[in-house]
Amino acid sequence: MAQPRILILGAPGAGKGTQSAKITEEFDVDHITTGDALRANKDMDISDMDTEYDTPREYMDQGELVPDEVVNAIVDEALSQADGFVLDGYPRNLEQAEELKGMTDLDVVLYLDVDEEELVHRLTGRRLDPETGDIYHVEYNPPEDPEVEERLEQRDDDTEETVRERLRVFRENTEPVIEYYDDQGDLERIDGEQAPDEVWEDVKATIEDAA
Ligand code: AP5
Question: In angstroms, what is the span from residue 18 Cα to ligand 1's centroid?
């Protein structure tokens, strides 16, 4: 197929970032991730948008969704510049799903299915390499190089309290998005509780089948 247009859905910590990195490399597509885009613009002034807070930071640090108007504009701009892509972190509510329908067609919609307590364990143990952006886990996937281990950082919203709130927001807002794609017969459900390489085998095969 031409470069695939892939949507990856899943709760916080389901492994979207981990699998998207592999998809990007294997299928030569852009990784469009609203979380990273917002983290890079946490202090952007959005006060003219009639929002509750003046910057994305306040929403993100509490585990709440950043207003649709801000996020829709980021995704629209990124999609207009991509041929193939893996879209990660969007849509997170039904309004965003409707917006996305007007922006692009999709070739495959993946859903990484993971139990809630496992998600908490994964997120509170996640560490990031600020130099490469690589994702690690203190227990499941620690770095081999002690120099890398030394510089690892924890995301501000990966504390247990904020993680629980992000999961509540997911249940309330994003689970209906999963049902929306499922009802259309578009959802490819993947067992996200397997080891990362096994999840990858399923993800890769599912994308290839959609070709
Ligand atoms: P965002 O950055 O999108 O975070 P998220 O959806 O909460 O997802 P994560 O990045 O935390 O998890 P992931 O699924 O990528 O897991 P990962 O691969 O790292 O959003 C952050 C915030 O931005 C939101 O709260 C909101 O405020 C705002 N925002 C973003 N998009 C928005 C939108 N559309 N609208 C409004 N607001 C928006 O894996 C997690 C850990 O598990 C890692 O340590 C990894 O090593 C480990 N791991 C991965 N796979 C496995 C496996 N198979 N087995 C064992 N461990 C594994």
Answer: 9
Residue ranges lining ligand 1, Cβ < 6 Å: 10, 12-18, 34-35, 38, 59-60, 63-66, 71, 89-90, 92, 96, 122-123, 126, 135-137, 140-141, 157, 166, 195-196, 199
Query: With a cut of 0.90, is the ipTM above it?
Result: yes
The topology under which CATH files domain 5-209 is Rossmann fold (3.40.50)
Cβ atoms within 10 Å of 174's Cβ, excluding its own: 21
Ligand 1, atom 52, residue with closest C-alpha: 196
Q: Annotated binding residue at 166?
A: yes
Give phi and psi for 194, each to the nearest 5. -70, 170
Handedness of CA 172, 173, 176, 181 (dihedral sign): negative
Ranges under pLDDT 70 in the chain: 1
Take residue 17 and report the two structure tokens written for it: 């970032």
The residue to mutate among 34, 51, 53, having the most atoms of ligand 1 within 8 angstroms of its beta carbon, is: 34
Q: How far apart are CA 67 and CA 76, in angstroms?
A: 15
Report pLDDT for 108: 97
5 is in an annotated binding site: no
Measured in whole angstroms, how far is the alpha carbon of residue 162 from the centre of its chain?
Answer: 16
DSSP 79-103: HHT-SSEEEES---SHHHHHHHHHH
